[in-house]
Task: inverse folding
């Protein structure tokens, strides 16, 4: 996108930011993840940057498996020494951004739309994307009795997780590409877009109140387990079948004040992704174990297995695809064309990658000067 574009959000994204926080009550914005006692601070370990603790946020989604596995296997704690990892689990992007802005969170795993929204709403002052985490893991799942082909989506009720969230923007863009029209705010038009929390969508699908959903994993595979059929994998719409679904973000002031802590977390993230990609079955079990620790319920195999196969774990933030996703939000009328220059600072990540003998990743011209 050209530089010097307006960073003002239109009413749609403002509405998203103003949505009530979908946070759990254990702390202000996200629930404290339960401690099962498996990850301990090593004897004789020292604090990084002299910091007592670092607050790390993520969602209970498989698309956040880097955070899930990194927590469960202790990769982050290992790199942080005696600086304690304090995890917080969130249900929605706006609540995680609010926690970051308030200082209740230092580093987080989050989707591209909340990151874009948070960055532009603060006029580029409150966060930076410092790394990638995952690609893919988003599908259009439908009732095969009602929808047998892509053209049959017209006239149906399709759920997305939230107005203006990453999947909502992707679905609105796909609708436009079909030549159909939908009012982005109301969701009414040639397709009825129903904004439904991922926890509610499987029940709505089972009850027949929605005919399908454009959702991330594991919700997509939960719908399949309820009799749904995958009609479209979003990855097929992207070059090389790759698009960012999860990024790593940080408070700008935290990055400035505690660069060694940020670097340690990124090293933990890189080590986690390497372990996930070389031990896929063990990593799948680890992610599921952390989900059970955080939520009290593990995923059944008929949901976990297909969901896991559709996600790629990568340190590359796939910056060019984030830029495209911002363009989709503009096209849908949910965002004024933003100036995203400076949303990335990949210097700490590339330092870690260089030490690992790995090629640096690119910010698509959207990095800090």
Result:
């Amino acid at each position: 996108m050209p530089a010097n574009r307006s960073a003002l959000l239109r009413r749609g994204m403002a509405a998203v930011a103003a949505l009530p926080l979908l946070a759990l009550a254990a702390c202000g914005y996200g629930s404290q993840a339960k401690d099962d006692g498996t990850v301990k601070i090593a004897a004789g370990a020292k604090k990084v940057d002299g910091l007592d603790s670092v607050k790390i946020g993520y969602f209970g989604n498989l698309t956040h498996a880097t955070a899930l596995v990194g927590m469960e296997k202790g990769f982050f704690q290992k790199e942080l020494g005696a600086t304690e990892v304090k995890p917080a689990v969130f249900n929605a992007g706006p609540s995680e951004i609010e926690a970051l802005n308030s200082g209740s969170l230092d580093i987080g795993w989050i989707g591209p739309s909340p990151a874009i929204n948070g960055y532009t709403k603060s006029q580029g002052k409150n966060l930076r994307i410092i790394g990638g985490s995952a690609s893919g893991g988003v599908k259009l799942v439908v009732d095969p009795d009602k929808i047998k082909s892509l053209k049959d989506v017209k006239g149906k009720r399709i759920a997305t997780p939230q107005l203006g969230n990453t999947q909502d923007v992707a679905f609105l863009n796909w609708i436009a590409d079909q030549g159909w029209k939908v009012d982005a705010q109301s969701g009414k038009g040639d397709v009825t877009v129903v904004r439904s929390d991922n926890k509610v969508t499987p029940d709505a699908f089972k009850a027949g109140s929605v005919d399908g959903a454009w959702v991330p994993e594991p919700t997509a595979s939960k719908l399949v387990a309820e009799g749904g059929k995958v009609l479209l994998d979003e990855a097929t719409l992207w070059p090389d079948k790759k698009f960012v679904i999860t990024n790593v973000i940080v408070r700008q002031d935290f990055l400035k004040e505690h660069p060694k802590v940020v670097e340690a977390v990124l090293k933990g993230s890189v080590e986690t992704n390497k372990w996930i990609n070389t031990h896929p079955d063990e990593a799948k079990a680890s992610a599921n174990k952390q989900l059970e620790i955080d939520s009290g319920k593990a995923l059944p195999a008929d949901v976990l297995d297909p969901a896991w196969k559709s996600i790629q774990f990568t340190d590359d933030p796939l910056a060019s695809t984030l830029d495209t996703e911002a363009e989709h939000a503009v096209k849908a009328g949910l965002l004024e064309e933003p100036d995203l220059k400076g949303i990335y600072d990949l210097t700490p990540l590339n330092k870690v990658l260089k030490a690992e003998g790995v090629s640096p990743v690119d910010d698509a011209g959207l990095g800090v000067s």
About this structure: The chain is about 40% helix and 15% strand.
